[in-house]
Amino acid sequence: MRSPVRTGALRGLPPSTPAPLQAGTKGLRDCAPRRLPVPPSSGFHSTSPECSEALATTAKLPEAEPVPPVPPRERFTIADIKERRAKAGRLVAPTAAYCDADMFKGPTTGKPKAKRWDHHLTTESALRAPCKLKQAAKHLKTPGLISLGGGLPCPEYFPISSLTLHIPTPPDFSETATLAAGEDAPIGKYDASFPSLEGSEYDLSIALNYGQATGSAQMTRFVTEHVELIGAPPYADWGVCLTIGSTGALEQILRMVCDGVGRKDSLLTEEFSFSTALETAAPLGVNVVGVKMDGEGLVPGVMDRILTGWDERERGGRRKPHVLYTVPSGQNPTGATQSVERRRAIYEVARRHDVLVVEDEPYYYLQMQEPGTEAPGSVEEFLEGLVPTYLSMDVDGRVVRMDSFSKVVVPGSRMGWITASAQLVERFIRHAEVANQGPSGFSQVILHKLLDERWGHEGYLRWLMNLRMEYTKRRDIMAAACEDFLPREVVSWKPPQAGMFQWLKVNHELHPYASTKGILDIEEEIFNSCISKGVLVARGSWFRAQQDIPPSGLYFRATFAAATPENMREAIRRLGEAIRESYQL
Amino acid sequence: MRSPVRTGALRGLPPSTPAPLQAGTKGLRDCAPRRLPVPPSSGFHSTSPECSEALATTAKLPEAEPVPPVPPRERFTIADIKERRAKAGRLVAPTAAYCDADMFKGPTTGKPKAKRWDHHLTTESALRAPCKLKQAAKHLKTPGLISLGGGLPCPEYFPISSLTLHIPTPPDFSETATLAAGEDAPIGKYDASFPSLEGSEYDLSIALNYGQATGSAQMTRFVTEHVELIGAPPYADWGVCLTIGSTGALEQILRMVCDGVGRKDSLLTEEFSFSTALETAAPLGVNVVGVKMDGEGLVPGVMDRILTGWDERERGGRRKPHVLYTVPSGQNPTGATQSVERRRAIYEVARRHDVLVVEDEPYYYLQMQEPGTEAPGSVEEFLEGLVPTYLSMDVDGRVVRMDSFSKVVVPGSRMGWITASAQLVERFIRHAEVANQGPSGFSQVILHKLLDERWGHEGYLRWLMNLRMEYTKRRDIMAAACEDFLPREVVSWKPPQAGMFQWLKVNHELHPYASTKGILDIEEEIFNSCISKGVLVARGSWFRAQQDIPPSGLYFRATFAAATPENMREAIRRLGEAIRESYQL
Q1: Which residue of B has its CA nearest to A175?
Q2: Contact map slice: A 262-281 vs B, CB within 8 A
Q3: Closest A-chain CA to B536
Q4: How far is it, in rounded angstroms, from Cα B293 to Cα B337?
Q5: Average pLDDT over residues B540-546
Q6: Which of A353, A367, B403, B555 is the most exposed place for a label (fewest CB within 10 A)?
Q7: Contact A369/A385 with Cβ under 8 angstroms?
Q8: Which of residues 296-325 of B touch A (CB under 8 A)?
Q9: Looking at residue A424, what is its pLDDT?
């Protein structure tokens, strides 16, 4: 067995903790993380007495079941992966070829297997049988076999003979540089049949036909390796499955483990959560339970108290929650980023209460550069500086991580992937077979050409490094606009460490009509005033996890992802004007 | 109001029936359909006494509720659509623009509205609320508005500056002609911002960003017009929504109208049905009820009798079925095609029993040319020759039609659309918002460039005309191979009139071990023998709608879509050999 290089090993452990060496662990070393100091509670999140108390320390958690330490994050390097590919030789994966992550993973010898989650599966998920026609594809490996099986059209009838991308050449990713000096990347219909000519392992004849619901072997290899570069799970039997973005993935995951009607399941999430996620859960009858947040996001002590004190009778017969949905980095809408200590604490609460963790990380790579700090010079430094993922600390296999190309390549790809234990991935695939049959072949072959074949892992990571600097600039422009145009006497905010969103708290109590006008009424008044002044912001109430309890404050979410710098300033100026008018300032 | 040209008006009515003129109907004329004579019952489908009796005539249907006549099919022409587009001017539909079919439809003045289906919706579907963030997009129309609303990335960060297709130029669609004389079709990032230069109404900056779950306005216009060319519904308020192919659409439709657990809903379908459709229904607890078939597919008299005699107590508390799933043309797996008379009869049974009809038509355009008949010379003749759709006779709005680009352009597009009443389309969109957010932008912009901008409706219909002739050739090659290599003494078959599949009946009773070996055992023996001889066929039992009743016969499905002519012959030879060996012939 080859020994993977393990980096960032002692991250998050107290200085006195000895390194928890595992079987087969070699080359353990401590790399000082290039991370930001954990900010104090920002003061713009609600801080009820319950919350403040819970915040104080995670040592207050009940100690009934001791939680073993989370092992160090483990990462392979780009050199490891290059070597592995060279050894494996050319990837031959024709139309609808079966694949899984194990075909592309590095060694996992000596690692334990993930726990089983049968008791969490819904009846719907447990009932899923493999797709008979997809299963029949296993016979296609038989040498000389002629298939009259699946109704796969002949690629002769695909009316596109080639598709040529014009793309940036690293390291200059700008639009102007791409126009002047980018490269053409053609994708032919039968490239993979002519390895000597083009060398490509994927082509239109494969990508544009039916495939397995997992996604193509070509893209599966790429995302498997990418997961290993960021930090693979510490158990052996993890897998991946391509998704129709995290939107589609979340719906599939909820149907897999949450039965809102029969079992009266609930879902834990941040008190303010991505509105579309809430809209996904609601029609399934899944009861959403919001957990208080502070400047670092969800507060683990509050989560623990909710679970410890859960009483089904008091909760209308609702079962104790067994699933947490969380956006750990640049949370939508609050922009909060959980530190590694926070993640560990939340993970430990999840272990104690047998809770699965759905880690939704569209903004993971949009972790910002702090003012006055030096940007990472190398890909390795960049990776070191990222907050470790839940996945990388998941000793049990209880995390389902959702990654997406939407925020970091293009939303229109409608493509992402999940990483989780083989058991959960298998159930997920069974659903994907009847829900979508995997992402668009156009999306797959285009992203493969760009990310795998042309850029490679190094180029893609450099793209992400470039992108986070762009978003850092945008965040700073918005922060300056807020400083310049918002009335500080009623509005408070903190520039986020990651993501696309600036969360703004407006002090409701200082409103001249606070005693007679509710929070939602004032929110609506300001929102409408904004529209008439020519700025669209998102209302904080759209993101309230529990619409059945009174709002805890008056908030707005503003994105710095889309508008030009000039427009961003003008928009914030208009927002400030709307607030001033409402508050009669 | 412009009067649409109505064609094929009297199709399917007895000669003595007067034309049922509707308000606003002008230019009614009878065009002799270029269709095939309805074949007699082919003899290879099961013909139980119940079935034979029901077959005799549809006049035996109970007459409790008189069913009004179905109005004539109505079609617009390509000239109508060109004129309409010219009047409307350039389509300006920027990022995430809201759209619906009404924006692109021809006049529907004087037509009734569809019926309401609230009583058929599931609780899940009824509970769906609009996506708050997508709804906010309506404000984007406000002139001068700056959006800090949705987290849409700036297209500056899309790492593809252009995408160039190489595509066939009609009328020669062959691969060799395309390589020699096809055309390049570039798609730039900002084409739509420079109308004077390129003239394109769609580009990468729009397609690769987030969009509405309906799909883009650009593709919505194309499919809306396409529906009108084939035959729009006879009610006013129909709509469309792009889908992740019919796979994804069916799952969404089932969740919209079938509650297998709470309401104990059932689904009617052909006795042999698409296995993936069955696998979609099963985990939802939806009970599938197979309806006997003959050479023209599902037998309406049997369907009527099942519904008339439905007894909830006898059926384990299962509610009387209110949804029919049918593949009317080139049915999968039997290859059967319902004649227009058959469709009318089934539709009337559906009306009588308040049944919604899910019309799954992936093979609709693969209707074959019969030997000795002349191929249509014009697009109009081609359209005339197609069997009318359920949609075109749907006076109530009870049909949900699923179309797909998978079989006629590329499966990898993972794109199709539904057409149905506005009420059902609206509920479907609400689900799409959280299930997928519409098809891949790559798929949309590429198919738009090809089908709409380069080929136009005329070119696309010519492509379909070409494709059906290709499939006709393939069907004939397989038919000849069957004649040459299959033992007629035990195997019977009839070349299909549409689709991709040859259905083969093997007479179980003639098997030397028929008295001791079950149908499924013999099927397995022959299947395994086929694999060892190097041919993969699909087992008939995979497609049995009801696995809980004994199999009615021994069948295999062979596709003529994929293999080369030589391989197809060799594969059928191997299949013949496997059958002969099992039957000791």
Answers
A1: B156
A2: 262, 275-276, 279-280
A3: A147
A4: 11
A5: 97
A6: A353
A7: no
A8: none
A9: 98
- Residue B15, both tokens: 């000669």
Q: Are residues A486 and A416 in the same domain?
A: no
Residues A425 and A497 in one domain: no
Domain assignment present for residue A222? The answer is no
Instruction: For residues A342 and A427, state if they share a domain.
Output: yes
**B462 inside domain:** no
Q: Are residues A492 and A546 in the same domain?
A: yes
- Partners of B214 on chain A (C-beta within 8 Å) are none
For residues B148 and A559, the answer to whether their CB atoms sit within 8 Å is yes
Q: Domain count of chain A? A: 3
| Residue B551: domain span | 473-583
Region of B248 (left: φ > 0; alpha: ψ -120 to 50; beta: rest) is alpha
Nearest CA in chain B to A142: B534
Domain presence at residue A416: yes
Residue A455 has pLDDT above 60, yes or no: yes
Chain B residue at shortest CA distance from A245: B436
Q: Would you call A207 helix, strand, or coil by DSSP?
A: helix
Which residue in the set A164, A444, A575 is minimally distant from B164, CB to CB?
Answer: A164
User: Any CB–CB contact under 8 A between A124 and chain B?
Assistant: yes
Q: Which residues in B lie closer than 8 A to residue A182 (C-beta atoms)?
A: 161
* CATH classification at residue B520: 3.90.1150.10
Q: For residue B257, which amino acid is it?
A: V
Coil, helix or strand at residue A159: coil
Whether residue B527 lies inside any domain: the answer is: yes
Q: For position A63, what pLDDT does the model report?
A: 45
Dist. CA A83–CA A101, nearest whole Å: 17
pLDDT of residue A132: 87
Q: Based on the fold, state whether residues A424 and A475 are members of the same structural domain.
A: no
Angstrom distance (rounded) from CA B339 to CA B328? 9
CATH code for the domain of A248: 3.40.640.10
Residue A73: which pLDDT band, with cuts at 50, 70 and 90? low
Task: Give the model's confidence band at B138: pLDDT under 50 very low, under 70 low, under 90 confident, else very high.
Answer: confident
pLDDT tens per residue across span A481-516: 999 999 999 999 999 999 999 999 999 999 999 999
Mean pLDDT of chain A: 89
Residues A428 and A324 in one domain: yes
pLDDT, position A295: 96
Percent of chain B topping pLDDT 70 = 87
Cross-chain residue pair B157–A470, CB shorter than 8 Å: yes
What pLDDT, on a 0 to 100 scale, did the predictor assign at position B62?
45
Rounded Cα distance between A137 and A212, Å, is 9
A438 contacts B443? CB cut-off 8 A = no
User: Do residues A397 and A526 both lie within one domain?
Assistant: no
A340 CB-near residues (< 8 Å, 6+ apart): A11, A12, A33, A35, A387, A388
For residue A334, the chain B residues in CB contact (below 8 A) are: none
What integer is the mean pLDDT of A55-64?
42
Whole-number pLDDT of residue B29: 34
ipTM of the complex: 0.90
Amino acid at A388: P
* A501 & A359 share domain: no
Q: What is the DSSP letter of A55?
A: H
- Per-residue pLDDT averaged across B138-153, rounded? 91
